[in-house]
Write a structure and sequence with these properties.
It is a single chain. The chain has about 300 residues and is an alpha/beta fold. The protein has a single domain, classed as TIM Barrel, CATH 3.20.20. Helices cover about 40% and strands about 15% of the residues. The chain is built from ten helices and ten strands. The strands form two sheets. Strands 3-4-5-6-7-8-9-10 form an eight-stranded parallel beta barrel, surrounded by seven helices. Helix 1 packs across helix 2, helix 2 packs parallel to helix 3 and helix 3 packs parallel to helix 4. The longest helix has 18 residues. The radius of gyration is 17 Å and the shape is globular.
């Protein structure tokens, strides 16, 4: 495989971009972040890529399908999951990150809410920190991003790790998410994180009702307008709200619903889509971009 063919453009073009510790990612069109879990218990692919060799082979396939970013995680955040120690999380992800970074020139994100894990991942070759807690669980993540110039994803969630999927529904999810974004941005900037390093994730599936998940996707353009200086990420892939809406189908049967929700999110302004099904999403995004051009 020609690794260079899959590296992102590092020359910044006019418009939105995302600065990481290794490059500036052009966001003139939506980018696809591929999920690569090296956990034994993730809701969709737990245990499939738990060793470094299997994970690297999967990474090669994802890159070949058009992934722009790889998001590597070593702790499941599915409903009912339990925390693992920082040492266990590091032992799962660092060999994979080192192997992928050595072989491929592709931005690597570490999906963690622990600063110790983030620092180990950055040392191993990651350049983005993807924090599901929006700096609530470990404020030192902001310092890790600031000190390394890493990209930082601030996702909306509520409650503690064990309870974030069982929080009581709020009355106005749009207002709550916007308020959480403002708090997290202020906290990140106070620690020295630059505006251009920050991406905001609405946290689909994390403590939201089915209707609230749908509302966030449908009204993503309103958040995009309010936070116009920041790229927006949407991660709808195989989430439980899709399963419920389509008759309680299992995760491996949610690809069509995942693709539909990703397309709507992209149309409504999502700059980055976090997905399992890379090739289909890459193709769908090309159609979204082409159709959008005819509308201008």
């Amino acid at each position: 495989m020609d690794d260079a063919a899959h590296s992102l453009q590092v020359v910044v073009l006019p418009g939105m971009h995302w600065k990481t510790s290794k490059r500036e990612i052009d966001l003139a069109c939506p980018r696809v972040m591929s999920i690569l879990n090296v956990t034994p218990d993730s809701f969709s692919d737990g245990g499939r890529f738990a060793d470094a060799d299997a994970a690297v082979r999967h990474a090669e396939r994802l890159i070949g399908e058009g992934a722009d970013i790889l998001d590597i995680g070593g702790e499941s955040t599915r409903p009912g999951s339990s925390r693992v120690s920082a040492g266990e999380e590091i032992s799962r992800i660092v060999p994979v990150i080192e192997a992928v970074a050595k072989r491929f020139d592709i931005p690597i994100s570490v999906d963690t809410s622990k600063s110790q894990v983030a620092r180990a991942a950055l040392d191993a070759g990651a350049e983005i920190i993807n924090d599901i807690s929006g700096l609530r669980f470990d404020p030192l993540l902001a310092q890790a991003a600031a000190g390394s110039n890493a990209g930082l994803v601030l996702m909306h969630s509520s409650g503690e790790f064990e309870s974030m999927h069982s929080q009581p529904p709020v009355d106005d999810i749009m207002a709550v998410v916007a308020a959480a974004f403002r708090r997290a941005i202020q906290q990140a900037k106070a620690a020295g994180v630059g505006r251009e390093q920050i991406v905001l994730d609405v946290g689909i599936g994390f403590g939201k009702t089915l209707d609230q998940n749908l509302e966030l996707i449908a009204k993503l353009d309103k958040l995009k307008s309010e936070f116009a200086d920041y790229p927006i990420m949407a991660g709808t892939s195989r989430k439980s709200f899709i399963g419920k809406l389509l008759g309680d189908i299992p995760p491996n049967e949610r690809s069509a619903g995942s693709l539909a929700s990703a397309v709507v999110a992209a149309w409504n302004g999502a700059d980055i889509l976090r997905v399992h099904d890379v090739r289909a999403t890459v193709d769908a995004v090309k159609l979204v971009v082409a159709i959008r051009k005819t509308k201008q």
